[in-house]
Design a protein that fits this description.
Organism: Aquamicrobium defluvii
Number of helices: 14
CATH topology of the largest domain: Aspartate Aminotransferase, domain 2
Pfam families: Aminotran_5
Number of strands: 13
CATH superfamily of the largest domain: Type I PLP-dependent aspartate aminotransferase-like (Major domain)
Bound molecules: pyridoxal-5'-phosphate
Structural class: alpha/beta
GO molecular function, one term: L-serine-pyruvate transaminase activity
Order of helices and strands: HEHEHEHEEEHEHEEHHHHEEHHEEHH
CATH class of the largest domain: Alpha Beta
Radius of gyration: 21 Å
Number of domains: 2
Cofactor: pyridoxal 5'-phosphate
Largest sheet: 7 strands, mixed
Helix content: 40-55%
Strand order of the largest sheet: 1-9-8-7-4-2-3
Low-confidence stretches: none
Strand content: 5-15%
CATH architecture of the largest domain: 3-Layer(aba) Sandwich
GO biological process, one term: glycine biosynthetic process, by transamination of glyoxylate
C-alpha cells in the first residue's frame, strides 16, 4: 500500500465561510475604499471579462483606452456585450496622453464608460490615471480601471478618483496567488450592472455575486471555493499588512529607482524617460538597433534574471526587468542589471558594470 501522506497543498482545511468577508474587508482597508469588494474565483483576466460582460449592454457608449493586449481584450468583450466602443489607442508601448483622452471624449458626444489599464507590465508604462479620472467624472461616465499590475506598486485612490470598478489581482505587486481576483465596485456601478437583461447564472455575472454573496450577508460563496487560493490570499494579505501598503509601494519605488539608475549607468537606454510615466513593477529598456528581445531573452543569464521581451506591438525592441512583488528587492534588481550588462556585452556593446553596481548601491545604500 502506498503511503497516503498528508500533503500541505492538497489536504488543506476548508476555508471558513466567515473568512471571505474578512478577506474582502482587509482588501478594502488596504486600498482604503468604502466601495464593495467582491471576489471572482479565477485569475484577473476572468474578472475583467466579467466586468465588461456584466456592465456592457446595448446602447451603452464606451471610450476604451488601449495600451496593451489587455485593453484590446476588454474592448472585444464590451463590443460582444453590445456596447458602442470608441477605441483610443496610444502610441505602441507608450502611455496614453491626457490630451488624447480629452480630445476623444470631446469628439465622442456622450460617453457612459471610460476603461483603461492603470500600469502596464507589458511595456513598463504608467497611464495618467488621476487626470483621466477627472475627465471621466466631468463627462459623468463610469470609470473602470484594470489595476492588476499597479496594486501594491502605485497609489490607487479608488474613492477620491471616483473609480467605479477597480480590478485587483493579488499576483503582481501584492505577491499573492493568481487564481483569485477582487473587484472594488461602487454603488453607481451596481446600478448600471443591476438590469433585467444582465447576464445571470454565469461565472461572468457580477449581479450573481452581488445577490448570492453580498446581499445575502457575505457568508458562503457559490460553488466549491478553492481553499488553496483563499488560504494563499490570506497569507499574501498577512505579508502586505506586516509591511504596510505604503511600505509595499515604497519598496517598489526603490526597486524602480535602483533599476533605472543601474541601467542608465550601465549605458542601456530606458524605454520610458520620465520616471513618473513608468511602471514601478517592471522596467523596460529599448534595445540597440538590430538586437531582438525574444532572442536575447533566451540567453541563460537573461533567463536566470527573469528578463523577458516586451508584449504587444513593440515587443521585439523592448527587454523587461521584472521587480514585482517579492522581486522588488536589491538582489533581484542587481541580478537584472548585471544580466542586461552581460547580454549587451555579448552582443558587442560597451557597458559600465561598475558604474551600474554603484548606481544601484546609491539607491539601496552600501
Ligand atoms: C497580469 C495582468 C492582468 C491579469 O492577467 P492574468 O493572466 O490573469 O494574470 C490583467 N491586466 C494587466 C494589466 C496585467 O498586467
Amino acid at each position: 500500500m502506498p503511503d497516503f501522506a498528508r500533503h500541505s497543498l492538497l489536504d488543506l482545511p476548508p476555508y471558513p465561510a466567515a473568512g471571505y468577508a474578512r478577506l474582502a474587508d482587509r482588501i478594502a482597508t488596504l486600498i482604503a475604499t468604502g466601495n464593495d469588494v467582491v471576489f471572482v474565483q479565477a485569475e484577473a483576466v476572468v474578472a475583467l471579462e466579467a466586468a465588461a460582460t456584466s456592465l456592457g449592454t446595448a446602447g451603452m457608449r464606451a471610450l476604451n483606452i488601449v495600451t496593451s493586449p489587455y485593453g484590446e481584450l476588454f474592448g472585444g468583450w464590451l463590443t460582444r456585450a453590445g456596447v458602442d466602443v470608441v477605441e483610443l489607442r496610444a502610441e505602441p508601448g507608450l502611455p496614453v496622453t491626457v490630451e488624447a483622452v480629452a480630445q476623444a471624449l470631446a469628439g465622442a458626444g456622450g460617453v457612459d464608460l471610460v476603461a483603461l489599464v492603470h500600469a502596464e507590465s507589458a511595456s513598463g508604462i504608467l497611464n495618467p490615471l488621476p487626470a483621466i479620472a477627472r475627465l471621466a467624472r466631468e463627462k459623468g461616465a463610469l470609470l473602470l480601471v484594470d489595476a492588476v499590475a499597479s496594486a501594491g506598486g502605485h497609489e490607487l485612490d479608488v474613492d477620491a478618483l471616483g473609480i467605479d470598478i477597480a480590478v485587483i489581482g493579488p499576483q503582481k505587486g501584492l505577491g499573492g496567488p493568481a487564481g483569485i481576483s477582487a473587484l472594488c465596485v461602487s454603488q453607481r456601478a451596481w446600478q448600471a450592472i443591476d438590469r433585467p437583461d444582465a447576464p445571470q447564472r454565469s461565472v461572468l455575472s457580477l449581479i450573481d455575486i452581488k445577490r448570492n454573496w453580498l446581499d445575502a450577508g457575505r457568508g458562503a460563496l457559490s460553488g466549491m471555493p478553492s481553499a488553496l487560493e483563499f488560504h494563499a490570499l490570506e497569507a499574501a494579505l498577512d505579508r502586505v499588512e506586516a509591511e504596510g501598503m505604503a511600505g509595499t509601494i515604497a519598496r517598489h519605488v526603490r526597486a524602480q529607482r535602483a533599476t533605472r539608475a543601474g541601467l542608465e549607468a550601465l549605458g542601456a537606454r530606458l524605454w520610458i524617460g520620465d520616471e513618473r510615466e513608468a511602471s514601478r513593477l517592471v522596467t523596460t529598456i529599448l534595445l540597440p538597433e538590430g538586437l531582438d528581445a525574444h532572442r536575447l531573452a533566451q540567453d541563460e543569464a537573461a533567463i536566470a534574471a527573469g528578463l523577458t521581451a516586451g508584449v504587444g506591438a513593440v515587443a521585439s525592441k523592448l527587454l523587461r526587468l521584472d521587480h514585482t512583488g517579492p522581486r522588488a528587492g536589491r538582489e533581484t534588481v542587481l541580478q537584472g542589471v548585471r544580466a542586461v550588462g552581460h547580454i549587451l556585452n555579448r552582443a558587442g556593446f560597451a557597458t559600465d558594470e561598475r558604474a551600474a553596481e554603484e548606481a544601484v548601491a546609491g539607491v539601496y545604500g552600501p
